[in-house]
Amino acid sequence: MPDVMILNKIDLLPYVPFNVDRCVGYARQINPALKVFQVSVLKGDGMDEWYSFLRERKAAVVELER
Predict the structure, then answer these.
(1) Which of these, 60, 3, 8, 2, lies nearest to 38 by C-alpha position?
(2) pLDDT higher for 22 or 62?
């Protein structure tokens, strides 16, 4: 079961008919504990949180492999 969802290109939200809350709600029907990252590579929004998550996951995997 997926535990992470990346919602990319959030900088385009003002220009497209897309409901973020509905999307996240549907995804959480599959996994209520889903971690959602809303990012815009163009503007950098949400990237710090995404990178932090990746670093934490990598550290956890490295620790498990010891």
Answers:
(1) 8
(2) 22
